[in-house]
Amino acid sequence: xxPAEAPTGPKSPLAQRFxxxxxxVLDLETAGFNAxxxxxxxxxxxxxNMDDEGTLFAEETHSFHIEPFEGANIEQxxxxxxxxxxxxxxxxxxxxxxxxxxxxxxIRSAIKAHSCTRAIMVAHNAHFDLGFxxxxxxxxxxxxxxxxxxxxMDTATLAGLAYGQTVLAKACQTAGIEFDNxxxxxxxxxxxxxxxxxxxxxxxxxxxxxxPLSVPAAEDGDVSADSESSAS
Length: 232
Fold this sequence. Notes:
By secondary structure, the chain is of the alpha/beta class. It has helices spanning about 15, 75-80, 95-115, 125-140, 155-165, 170-175, 185-205, 225-230, and strands at about 20-30, 40-50, 55-65, 95, 120-125, 145-155. The chain has a six-stranded mixed sheet, with helices on both faces.
């Protein structure tokens, strides 16, 4: 987002909660583990919202099947694992250079609506997904990637803290979220379950008193670090 596009209105509760970032939950399906050589096959993004009480919830999902880029490596074992048939007439796949700008446009619209500065990716083992998105952005020469280039929020880590589980299915089950293993490894299903898990952790933290943060009142005679630094 350029300075000319920076939001000028009052921050929404969502923008205030994550220091101006819009959390967008992402899940991908790929034809391997190497972001630079292996094909991106599916991408699904869940855009979140927050009510005036500070409850975070999933608002809308956008999903695309992706055509492998020219020269992409495709591991048959990966296709077998995620259950993707690249020759299926029902797949309705889009080229990366068309699907990603369309997805990014929807995310930028949400950023503007919430007076946020940019999006931050939320995903399970998030650096994997971020690496594939960054590689695709570079490959397609896209100039308006709404995501922070290296910061992300990882639900594997958060679920390990909150529930003692780092596998998505087990974390959801421990959190009381229904999880169908037969539907897993679809980008849309996994993104929506990851969003449910992330929202649940954030909302539980609020309910336990962890947000908003309480700031101790300064005692008489105390000088804050900010005041000291501004006076020096």
